[in-house]
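Kindly go through the entry underneath: sequence plus fold tokens. Please state briefly how this chain folds according to its tokens.
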Amino acid sequence: MFNFSGTKPDNLGVKDGKLSPCPGTPNCVSSQSDSPQSKIDPLPAVGMADLKKVVEGMEGSTIIESTDNYLLAEFKTKLMGFVDDVEFYLDSSSGVTHVRSASRLGKSDLGVNRARVEEIRAKLT
């Protein structure tokens, strides 16, 4: 069995109302990014309990941290064990839930992070 989980980044979380920026690689999307490559629309403002329920129902997900306005989950692929870190930040002042989804290893994710966020968006509406 392969293990490509990588090391959990130490820059996760919300600092001054912002999630960590995406690195320059095409394996990350963020609703707070200015880069066309990694920019994705924020999710609607939803309760963290509802969001947590959606995430928990998705294949390969593990909830790592959950508060009233922040959720961190890891998604692990079945075959190779690649891990993506997915963060959600409920910004009640702007009425949206910011999201960041990033692969720990590699350069390209073949669009997996963007597709995952869009799947979550669809399940919330």
